[in-house]
């Protein structure tokens, strides 16, 4: 099973109809659509990306679906997500997906960056509901991805283990360059 499918499976088991979710890196909108399917028309998805191309691609995808009204797309850094989530949804986020790196078929020079990724993860932890989940697909194989992946793993080590559980999955033999999925669950 691919790591993306594994992330979807974890989220499918966690997210219910009517829930609130964040796609922190919407890219071409596949994960946004997946989250919208999980929360349904009674739920809400907030999607972030810094690139207009990602917003346009995702909006087009949503227009062809029944989920367009439950998704809000925001062209901003996920580092600033807390400022964009309405007060009534703060502390009520049931899932937050990160798919790090560059936009597939897009400008490969625009990648997620360690500092903003860590700011976003910290914000996401605060926004999560009890039992809420963060999934992070991290790719150390591209330039800059190695530093970012190491930074994310170090960041997870300082999480209070009474408040958060952290699991890590590899699709192949673990190695320094192998992509990985980190799953964080808020316990309280
Ligand atoms: C691997 S792609 C995401 C793929 C996407 N989830 C999908 O289903 O197609 C990573 C995305 O992160 C975006 N990105 C980079 N830095 C960002 C930031 N600070 N805040 C939000 N998005 C960012 C990139 O523009 C790119 O579209």
Descriptive overview:
The protein is globular. Helix content is 35%, strand content 25%. The chain is of the alpha/beta class and 188 residues long. Strands 3-2-1-4-5-7-6 form a 7-stranded mixed β-sheet, with helices on both faces. The mean pLDDT is 96. It has 6 helices and 7 strands; from the N terminus they run αβαβαβαβαβαββ. β4, α5 and β5 form a beta-alpha-beta unit. It has a single domain, classed as Rossmann fold (3-Layer(aba) Sandwich). Bound molecules: S-adenosylmethionine. The site of S-adenosylmethionine has 21 residues, from α2 and β2.
Compact summary:
Helix content is 35%, strand content 25%. By secondary structure, the protein is an alpha/beta fold.
Q: What is the percent of helical residues? A: 25-40%
Indicate how many domains the architecture comprises. 1
- The radius of gyration computed from the alpha-carbon positions, rounded to a whole number of angstroms, is 15 Å
Number of separate strands: 7
Largest sheet: 7 strands, mixed
Could you report the average pLDDT, rounded to the nearest whole number?
A: 96
Corresponding CATH superfamily: Vaccinia Virus protein VP39
Q: Cα distance, first to last residue? A: 30 Å
CATH class: Alpha Beta
Tell me the strand order in the biggest sheet.
3-2-1-4-5-7-6
Low-confidence stretches: none
